[in-house]
Amino acid sequence: MYLGSLVELAPADELYENPLHPYTISLLSAIPIPDPVVERERETILLSGDLPSPANPPPACRFHTRCPYVQPTRCRDDVPPLRLVHGHHVACHWAEEIKAGTVRPHEVEPVFDPGIPEPVYEPPPV
Ligand code: SF4
Question: CB of 2 within 8 A of CB of 23?
Fold first, then answer.
């Protein structure tokens, strides 16, 4: 679930082994593995930006403001339906491409809520 929407549904073992939705991929990549060799080799996908308000979620794909796989088309324009992909029900336009590795994670510019002023850095008193 992300902001009240179901983003991926699959049997637990399958979900842990082969996550398809970028939010699931990010969550599972943050879980430490108690094997230093495996842990050193694997990629952790960090989400940027703040969690938007569930009362006023982003349009189209609700995850697009923080998604490390966001694409310039469709993600910001169309709501991704929950559809069957490789045995998972997943709500992502690019699930097949992410699974195939043709869409890769990238840096996402944090999106600030225009109603909330950006934080101002104030140096500590000397
Ligand atoms: S539809 Fe786009 S923004 Fe939404 S999860 Fe998929 S890649 Fe990310």
Answer: yes
In the chain, what are the domain boundaries?
8-100
> Ligand 1, from 61, 62, 77, 85: best to mutate by most atoms within 8 Å of Cβ?
61
pLDDT for 67 equals 93
Please indicate whether residue 93, judged by its CB atom, sits closer than 6 Å to ligand 1: yes
Phi/psi at 8 (5° precision): -155, 140
Give the pLDDT confidence of 91-102 residue by residue, as tens digits.
999 999 999 999
As beta bridge partners, residue 88 has 85
Residue with tokens 């992300």, as numbered in its chain: 2
The residues pairing with 9 across neighbouring beta strands, listed in sequence order, are 89
Length of the chain measured in residues: 126
User: Residue 32 and residue 38: Cα distance in Å, rounded?
Assistant: 10
Nearest in space to 62 (alpha carbons), one of 1, 115, 107:
1
- Separation of 120 CA from ligand 1 center, angstroms? 31
Q: What one-character DSSP code corresponds to residue 30?
A: T
